[in-house]
Design a protein that fits this description.
With about 220 residues, this protein is an all-alpha fold. It is about 60% helix and about 0% strand. Pfam families: HD.
């Protein structure tokens, strides 16, 4: 199946189920992850493009809120949900297993180590979405969904308290986001992540200036 037809089929499946997708995990997120995953894999020497395309569109097939008790199982549930779709699309057994592994391993909360280039590229591509201008927007979209305060008005950068990103959105930058570049699986991913992390730092510096304090991270 040509890549264009594969993408059309996957998008049709996505739209048929789009009721599960929030603003941070919509079709545009899937498209961006696909493009980034392909770029990263090409920079690293190759990868199976069919697997990358399918994994990008199906990696959030089961999308659970960050505070859901089954959140750590979401990627495994997505992989299982992807299998019959991949079979219908004519993927062979090896391609299905490769796609399922990439989907399972992409999740930060699942803590599964990606083994294949496709899995590493997908994980890096998905984590890039948490950085840069898009990542900045997504932080506050998700904070609004969870009812999280923007920051602690008395100590916005947690200089006199423990970080708590369940209560304060800005704390999430220090707890997770600014650490993402060092967690990238590929050289290409690390390069892109470092560049996008500077966008987040720039925002935090500007926020600190407006709040008349210092940005310690």
């Amino acid at each position: 199946m040509p890549h264009g037809q594969l993408i059309s089929e996957l998008e049709a499946a996505f739209f048929a189920r789009e009721g599960h997708a929030d603003a941070s995990h919509d079709i545009n997120h899937a498209r961006r992850v696909m493009r980034s995953a392909l770029d990263i894999a090409h920079a690293e020497g190759g990868g199976n493009e069919r697997v990358l395309i399918a994994a990008a569109y199906l990696h959030d097939w089961v999308n659970l809120p960050k505070n859901h008790p089954d959140r750590t199982r979401a990627s495994a549930l997505s992989a299982e949900g992807a299998r019959p779709i991949l079979l219908d699309l004519g993927f062979d057994a090896a391609e299905i297993e490769a796609t399922a592994h990439a989907i399972v391993a992409h999740s930060f909360s699942a803590g599964i180590v990606p083994v294949s280039l496709e899995a590493k590229a997908l994980q890096d591509a998905d984590r890039l979405e948490a950085l840069g201008a898009i990542g900045l927007a997504r932080v506050f979209v998700i904070a609004g969904q969870l009812g999280t305060a923007l920051f602690d008005g008395d100590d916005p950068f947690a200089q006199r308290r423990q970080l708590d990103d369940r209560r304060f959105a800005v704390d999430h930058f220090a707890v997770k986001l600014l650490r993402l570049p060092s967690s990238m699986q590929t050289h290409a991913g690390r390069t892109l992540a470092a560049r996008r992390a500077e966008v987040l730092r720039g925002f935090l510096v500007a926020l600190a200036e407006e709040l008349r304090t210092e940005m310690p991270w």
